[in-house]
Specification:
Blueprint (H helix, E strand, L loop, with lengths): L3 E6 L7 H14 L3 E5 L13 E3 L2 H7 L16 H6 L3 H6 L2 E8 L1 H16 L5 E6 L17 H22 L2 E6 L6 H9 L4 E3 L11 H17 L5 E6 L8 H7 L18 H15 L6 E6 L1 H4 L5 H19 L5 E5 L5 E5 H4 L17 H9 L9 H4 L11 H5 L7
């Protein structure tokens, strides 16, 4: 029987999913392998009749540059009971599967390793190679390498962000945007920088103080006041949804948001409009201080996950897909494929990325000590400093409450 590989996609979508799947398929088909695509993520490996499709070269060529994922995705994460009672070993044996390729985030990668160990215990060793993705750009890949999908999501987000900013300038209003980013603010920071937004709020900025609702609100109002001093009655602020993750229970109650949680223990942020919540909080404070400013909420989330991949991700994901075969041919397993800035393919092992105590992969955060971040804070953002206090009193009694550096507890010189 012809040797086969199986490929599945887990978690949520990111631009480039189909590019990876198509490139893996094309490469292995040319080497004489059968390529089996599994729908519904890991679900198919834990039921008798998985939804599967043979991916031929024509199909691979048809999907490789599309957005979304041709293979339907799932966040299903098998339990120990699932492994004991439901695992479909017959799928691997009857189809002569030698390699399981998984495309997803850290949860998908961890499950892939569990499956490989389980199959080894069953005397059916199988190679597993993971392709890491997330539009959040928060997996700790080597310096300078984004996670695939981030650049495309940022590009689409910046298109929305630019349009919103033109509307703000045209109508004399403010807009409050929220951007995806569970643990890190890369997407919000990237979009805000591309659009020259006068205020960007990301969780990394609160490295010297607790994140509170008041601080988030006051940062945006600081920008509104500064722009008024500059005779500019319009603007836009972008806030990373990740700031919610660091709010205490009391602060979350203050925000008025009631979260449900997914099976991995993550707040289901997708079920609420963070932009609407942020905007409501800001409008409430503006009313309290009697400042007449119109603001509108805009959400940037699901709108960018299935964006058609830009050229960067088309090339990057193609290299990742072809890189899977390189690692497989070298006998590598239990690893993630990685392509550096020179185009060199190598592997990363989860054990080298995981925290020794928790076993979790720590997120890669925005570097707030680097020149890029400092340049944005110093030259793009607009906010109140002590030099603005006298002018700011035209609108607020206590301008020091809206002092950017005081809010964040930063030294203005060495922050």
């Amino acid at each position: 029987m012809k040797e086969a590989i199986a490929i599945l996609t887990g978690g949520g979508p990111a631009p480039g999913m189909n590019t990876v799947v198509g490139s893996v398929a094309k490469t292995f088909l040319q080497k004489g392998y059968r390529v089996i695509g599994l729908h519904e993520g890991y679900t198919g490996l834990f039921k008798k009749n998985p939804r599967m499709v043979d991916i031929d070269y024509f199909l691979a060529d048809d999907i490789f540059n599309r957005g979304g994922s041709y293979l339907q995705m799932s966040r299903f994460k098998p339990t120990n009971e699932n492994f004991a009672n439901d695992f479909n070993l017959e799928f691997f044996m009857s189809n002569n599967v030698k390699l399981l390729v998984t495309v997803g985030g850290d949860d998908t990668a961890s499950t892939a390793n569990r499956i490989a160990k389980f199959l080894e215990e069953k005397k059916y060793p199988i190679t597993n190679i993971h392709v890491p993705k997330t539009i959040d750009n928060d997996l700790p890949l080597p310096e300078g390498s984004p996670t695939f999908g981030y650049e495309s999501a940022k590009d689409k987000g910046a298109i929305i962000g630019r349009t919103v900013y033109v509307d703000a300038r045209t109508s004399g209003n403010w807009f409050v945007l929220a951007a995806m980013g569970r643990s890190a603010g890369h997407l919000a920071f990237g979009i805000g920088t591309a659009c020259h937004y006068p205020m960007i709020v990301i969780p990394e900025m609160f490295n010297k103080t607790e994140i509170t609702v008041d601080k988030i609100v006051n940062l945006v109002i600081s920008s509104i006041i500064k722009r008024k001093i500059m005779n500019m009655d319009y603007g836009a602020a972008i806030i990373s949804e990740g700031v919610f993750h660091a709010l205490s229970n009391d602060e979350i109650k203050k925000s008025g948001v009631h979260f449900s949680y997914d099976e991995h223990g993550h707040p289901e942020l997708g079920k609420v409009s963070k932009a609407h919540i942020f905007n409501e909080m800001i409008e409430k404070k503006l009313k309290q201080i009697n400042m007449k400013v119109k603001s509108r909420p805009v959400e940037i989330g699901y709108e960018v996950r299935c964006q058609t991949p830009v050229a960067f991700d088309l090339v990057y994901c193609s290299m990742l897909g072809m890189g899977v075969y390189k690692l497989f041919s070298e006998g590598k397993t239990g690893c993630m494929v990685y392509v550096d800035q020179r185009g060199q393919v190598s592997q990363l092992y989860l054990k080298d990325l995981q925290d020794d105590v928790t076993g979790k992969i720590p997120p890669r955060l925005v570097d707030i000590k680097g020149d890029k971040f400092h340049a944005v804070v110093d030259h793009i953002l607009c906010y109140i400093t002590p030099e603005d206090y006298d002018a700011a009193r035209q609108w607020v009694e206590r301008p020091e409450e809206y002092d950017f550096f005081r809010i964040l507890n930063w030294d203005p010189v060495n922050y």
